[in-house]
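TL;DR need structure tokens for one chain.
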Amino acid sequence: MLQFRIQPDSDIPASTQLFNQIRFAIASRQYSPGYKLPSTRALAMQTGLHRNTISKVYRQLEEEGFVESLAGSGIYVRAQGHEGGSRLQSPILKQHPEAYKVVQKALDELLSGGCSLNQAREIFLAEIDWRLRCSARVLVAVPAMDIGAGELMVYELEESLQIPIQLVAMEELAAVLDQTSSATVVTSRYFIAEVEEIAAPKAVRVIPLDIYDYTKEFNVIKGLSKDSCIGVVSLSSGILNATEVILHGMQGDNLLVMTAQPKDTYKLKAIVKRAQIIFCSDPVSFAAVQAALHNCLEDIIRPPKLIRCDNYIGTESINLLKRELGLG
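>> reply
TL;DR here they are.
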């Protein structure tokens, strides 16, 4: 960031000094088109001027066409002449004011690397077209032995992305990809190596998803007394296996851990009768536990506390996938 300096004993008004310095920064392209000017607060701290004085300078710069104000975003250096001022007025670039600068930088790098404008255009369009085609079909791939994990992922992704998701057993993935020219395959980071190996010869993207960290649930468990019984119910057999290992590592033999999938009615009945707390990783499991609890209420002195986990896929992973698919 440039350092602007104000001479308090100068005959030139402080606002004029700042105006001339910013105008020079723009004219010398130290502040290039699309650059976001510092906030009035930041500039006040740097120069010692009142924020009202800086706001006045910014208004003058805008009136003379050097900058433009985007509501709720900030003050940006305007492109002038052939630099594409009309492009910066478009609704899309007003919504994403840094976009022009990013594209311009990428284009400059391609041209510096020996590409012609036509070649750069083909590269951009090919990448955009490929991403659009990949986004048109999204597959979730998991091992057949843990298809429940895939069901969890499909449920959460369809809810978050509002697009159809296809569940594919990893053992069938190669055959499915043989029938499509492009797709995006997502899977848990647990299975990423196997999925990448299958997808490598195909024209598809493979994106790993991080699972939810279960911090809130672990904190609940840490507060339990010795010899407590915990129930864990999930569509995913992998979650159940991992949970038993992790909880044993956390609490050793201090806790009794009982696990079941929603279809295991016998195990569910045992869990609702014995456990003090039951964790459910998904809506299907939660509904199954509620039903089992209702059926056993007459046999239970103190009903267990039911906790439905927030989600299976980490929030950051879902947001990343949205960006990769062009959905947000």
